[in-house]
Amino acid sequence: MGTTMLPHDACLAELISFLRTSPTAFHAAASAAALLRESGFVQLDEQASWGRLPAGNYFVLRNESSLIGFTWNGGGAFRLIGAHTDSPSLRLKPNPLRKEQGCLLLGVEIYGGALLRPWFDRELSLAGRVAWQDKNGSLRSALLDVQRPVAVIPSLAIHLNREANKQQDINSQTELVPLAGLIGEAATDFQHLLREQLRSQQPDAEPAGLIDHELFFYDATPPALAGLHQEFIVSARLDNLVSCFAAVQALRLADAQDNCLIILNDHEEVGSVSAAGAKGPLLRDVLERLLPETEARQAALRKSFFISADNAHAVHPNYAAKHDPQHLPQLGKGPVIKFNANQRYATTAASAAKFRQLCTKADVPVQEFVSRSDMGCGSTIGPLTAAELGVETVDVGIPSLAMHSIRETAASVDCWHLCRVLRTFFQP
Prior knowledge:
alpha/beta
């Protein structure tokens, strides 16, 4: 706690490692927890009584996919940072195995607002959580990551579809179906395949039977630096693992008199309505345990400030007309403050001004984004958290391209910029 922040190259290397070890929301929460443990944070059990926590550094997991970490000094205002652990993906159906024309196919559901076309012709791996029954009949769960390509979604050859290069709808039931093998080449019992994979990663478990799974396909190609001078980072799940990483690093280095807290919610990409999502009670539950007296808690929240960090749309050089001409966030020019008149973002004039001051203090440039008036606008956990707690909130994020694609692009320096400004927030 309170140590010096990593220089740009070392920070970027740690970010790439975090991206590689976080193929799903479950793994992202586990990666964040591992970094906090390394810095001396103690995990709390939600099923146990916490009593009056002594001053210290703690974290809690819910659903193994959402995390709250905090430094606790016994009362007073909070400095809060929020992000989300999930990203659009393809989730395996409960009974996914299909057999067509001598091939083994795996049925999927679309999770979140995924950009679908880039999923074709990619080497796909599989990761997530499995629940299983051990030989004593006890139910257990474990994270699973195959860590190698196991499927591909082949495109239809242009010779068979001369309209392929024109905009076309994708039928997610019939066209977006990963090809996983050939009939006769391997076992075709999917439960057997998962049991074998689980045994390979948990050799001491010897599971008697697999019960259920929450598994997602992901791009097996690792994150990479690109550009003539490696100025870009290209990876899956930049939205919103860059913000998660920056929040965790800020908390690891926090040394402030105020209480510092990060919340990394799951299920943002599907509306946040869950026990672990931003519309659920996770953050409120933790705050009520820390400050059980209602008036004291409300007074503390009125003095608190929440930074909702979620990627923003950089202006695309090939599609600049998709942006408002007075608001063109550029790659490499610093984090973006996000505004919306209809409260899709929770930014106010006062909260924007406070974030600008932070950027000045951190020597970080800052930009603005507002959607074109004739286009819709996305949202974040910011308005949900502000409405739930009444805490002053600003919505920000690094500018990025190809948001919700299987591969997204950002400027590596902007990842560094975000780490610096969040670090400054926790070091007033």
